[in-house]
Design goal:
This protein is mostly helical.
């Protein structure tokens, strides 16, 4: 039972994290929007670098990018909450039933990995060369997030057997 409860608690902790991040991005929309604006504009990357053709200075793209991030964070939160509830409800069930209850939690973890790895490392970090910016570089924070998510994904995805009788 300890392992099942650990999986539930870890899923809930990541749901809380994603929920707070979503809330913060809505409450402090302007400063976080500014982050997206600078990354997509590539205005603090190395001057005259060969990747500047990728930059966009169109505010519609900045808004779309930012809303995709917020939507991904919110979806991560909701899926992880639903996953934790499903796991909680089946904590005393057979191993097969408990394993089937992991679907929403796993989906939430994958969406979170998509946001913080693909969104921040692949798109922001490499496509828009965020790594070149000393001011607007979120790669270190994103790394901490997606590594935590990946660790929980590996743990939650481990097969659970039936609980011992008694």
């Amino acid at each position: 039972m300890t392992i099942r409860l650990a999986k539930i608690v870890m899923t809930l902790m990541l749901a809380a994290f994603a929920g707070i991040v979503t809330s913060d991005n809505l409450a402090d929309y302007g400063s976080n929007y500014l982050f997206v604006q600078h990354v997509l504009s590539m205005d603090t990357t190395f001057p005259h670098n060969a990747l500047l053709y990728r930059a966009t200075t169109n505010p519609l793209w900045w808004q779309l990018g930012y809303w995709l991030i917020i939507a991904g964070e919110g979806a991560t939160c909701l899926l992880l909450l639903a996953g934790a509830v499903a796991l909680w409800r089946r904590r005393h069930a057979s191993g097969i039933d408990f394993n089937h209850a992991k679907a929403c939690a796993i989906a939430g973890l994958v969406v979170g990995f998509l946001v913080w790895f693909f969104g921040f490392m692949v798109v922001g970090g490499e496509w828009f060369a965020m790594w070149q910016s000393k001011i607007w570089n979120g790669q270190e924070a994103a790394f901490r997030f997606y590594v935590a998510i990946a660790g929980v994904l590996i743990f939650v995805n481990q097969r659970d057997d039936d609980l011992p009788a008694g």
